[in-house]
Design goal:
The protein is an alpha+beta fold and 1040 residues long. It has 19 helices and 62 strands. It starts with a helix and ends with a helix.
Length: 1040
Amino acid sequence: MKKRFVLLFFLGLLTIMLPFLLYIKKKTSYLNVWIIDKTVPNKDFREHKGLVWILNNMKVKNKITGNYFDYKKDYFGFYPDGERYNIFEIQPNNPDFIYIADAYGVYENDYKQNKEDIKSNLIYGGLKEEELFKIKSYLNNGRVIVAEFNTIEYPTQEKVKDELENIFGFKWNGWIGRYFVELKKDVEVPMWIIENYEKQYNSKWDFKGRGFVFISQDNKILVLDKNDFGSKKLRIQFGEKYLREFNVKNYVNYNYWFEVVSAIDSEVIANFILDVNEGGYKKLKKYGLDKKFPAVLRKVSSDYTSYYFSGDFADINDVPYFYKLEGYDLFKKLVSVNTDSQDAFYWKVYVPMMKKIIKDVKVMNKAIDYGLYNYKGVKLVSRIKNNEFQIYKNGVWQSFFIKGVNLGLATPGKWFTQMPENEADYLRWFDLIGKMNVNTIRVYTLIHPSFYKALKTYNEIHKDNPLYLVQEIWPDENPKDHNYLDKENLKSFMKEIEYVIDAIHGNIEIPKRIGKSYGIYDSDVSKWTIAFLVGRELEPDEVISTNQKNKGYKYKGEYVSCQVGEATEAWLALCCDYLMKYEEEKYKFQHPVAIVSWPTLDPILHRSEFNAFSKKELEYNDKAIVNINNFDLGARNIAGFFGAYHIYPNYPDFMNNEEHYKEYKDEYGRLMYGGYLKEFISQHKKFPALVAEFGLATGAGNAHMNPDGYNHGGVDEITQGEGIVRMMKAIKKEGYIGGIIFEWMDEWAKKTWITEPFMIPYERHVLWHNAVDPEQNYGILAVESIKPEKPDLQIKDDGLIKSISIFSDETYLYIDLEYDKNFDFINNEIIIGIDTYDRSKGDFKYSPYIDFKSPTGMEFIIKIKNKTAKILAHPEYNIGNMKFSSKKTEKGIYEEIKPVINKSRVTMDGKIIPQIRQDGSTLKYGDFTDSSNCFYIEEKIYIRIPWAKLNVTDPSSHRVLDDDKKYLYYPERDTFKTTVTDGFIISGIVVANNKLVDVFPGKQYVETKIYKWKGWEEPKYRERLKKSYGIIKEYFKTLK
């Protein structure tokens, strides 16, 4: 008997201990799990605690820490800490599994435990663009992502919501809902729901007992009370095959928040079923709702598998403290009762389903980080070796050809120093740049801290193909006394060098300053920084002045020296040497350093850059020199030194005029640009050379003509791409260490000599896009204004022209002409008159051959015949002929707009090179998907005229040019007089064989209506990849 008792005792003990023993014996697995929970107003952690229990019960440990998951700290999001709180940001650390538990966030009343239960201000919440970028970056290699309510609703941004819907394969129909055990006021239902209901229905909230409340995104309220549904309330229903796959129980009640969604390209694993009666169903149908809607969705793609739960599935407060019991979840699954609590749903549905999902998660391979090269205690990531650029990657030195793009960062309405502060903007651009197969980005100055944070994030995600950084340090423009070596100038620049080095190493807080970036720089990007550039396009007069004021000045440094050159060269050597010394002494790190220059300062004698006076000093572009051959390396320089040059095919003029450049041939024929590259590199004997800027501008203007067609502006987007590829091939062929395209995106803040005098007031020109200015249109990413969907003014007619629709935006005046179906485009010519200001000025006739007058004077006409269109100017208002104020005439004579863009020159041997004028009148034919086009014909005639072609100096404030003073050359900015127009009058005629055929608008006489567009203080715009993007992308894919 005693033995039997002992045996039973031990059997009982074994039974009790068995779950624990089985758990101990179970194999441990390791996963890197991203748990994202932004809704943690207190320390119950209920939105993700249930998930953590499952992971620990499965003996899945945290791959990062090696420990069991801790719901108090192993998540990203809001962490409450008394009166204060912390934010745990998502770290790009190669997750195996992503779970978005809740993004609703934390609000003041919740955090401060205000019991009034009214809506309050958001403290933190909603998925942000930069967070979505990190998530999307890891949706590959078969990863699994799970999200649940509330991920997509407020306060998540609309465009983030749209992308999340695409990731998970559903569409939210705008409604959320919740089951309440008691609808009675002051019990469960939030006060803001009650207030909205009473306002909507103009009646008191008098509900009692259990019920459902539905809330729409525009705050409509629908209540189903106990009379509208049966005892089964809201249940989850799985399909038969999914019951087996996930080992879940069917028809379990769900008793908390949910949302109404529709599957788009996902499979429905389970549905919610509302047990409504006929009355309840009618209420639902009134608002477009149904009693059945998806509860669990799965989308399987070639890259990832996603699950979406349209309820707050993980939300549970009371989970067992212990988890080291094998089979405990099965026990709870059997004994849990289907009540008003969430316990039964958690154990019967959520736990088995999540265990199956987690079991299927693949462990991702860890990216190998080989670190940095260490040479006698000095760290290197890049170097110049045997005149070749190299990077240290995967534990070895590799040859590296720089395929780069320059980042100018002035968005519309902002100046160059007003850089974006949103990390998401940079991440979006980096993603597109990386997909263009670029390996390097270059910035000109120290950027806002968010730039470096974004770069670090991007590169930690893309460890195998990072974007390397070339960081320039820009000396101030207009130095005191035109002397770079002035003590104040030198001191200021040395401090800027220190700031930049410290920022790159993530180790400085720069105090607030005007016109330059500042803030906390805590993102170390030194291992992705491959070079520092010192300088800028130095002005020849500054170079000459510095040399004259510091005759005999030389510099010998430990890293860089200049003992045979001029003072400007010695100053550059001093700055480069200081940079390298500062970085090594403070961070035990060296990066290659380069001087920045341009053809204007090259050491080549250009025979075409001359004049009739035989005085080289009169030529801006060939009178001063910075020669890298005068530099030497110091004994401590192990990273290297090189030259970085801005080389374009169309400027200076000698790029277009040197006869021997025409001898250069590539696979496509003559390429004068290659001729210069070959000549320049042949004298660049001591150090490598990088083409740090090259590119082509689109748009509707041209500032310099190039014989090969690579003009300074006005090229179409296909030519832009093909030309950049062709130039890069020449750069590679001639032995440069790389090329960096100018530039990533269009910048409205830029200017050039043909436009700067006409953008008045100059301080407002960032508010509008000057399509005529080449410098504003170099981007591979178009940053363009948006044509309104509806016209501001529409005038209907019943002649050959049926209607005129007039629109405008920050770049163009648009004119859409609806024409009669029998319109003869071969024989008929349309003449559109534009009166831009002062009705008494301008010409009152459309043509000298047509005896028909406009009721107001016209400054411009547009002549359209077939697929040819030109804008012509009143002779007194033609800036191409230096006329800037309209006058009253009745001649019908208008001139082509042809300003000088290449001036006449006399070569050293006396040959005269004639001037070249720009064709500013022809409107390029083609639809508006290309930024250089201004006119096309389909069901209507579509015309868009850049504001600058109409002598509008600031469309945002309705200002137009009006200066009757005589000028021999364009004056300084803000010199021309202007006036404010009260609007434009647009009219026209149709002629055939110099005979009047039709008038519009009107019949016998033109009917005038003034078009006055709305001004603006903040521009609207969108981003669009130009057609050049794909061309460059394909070439860069093959370029090694």
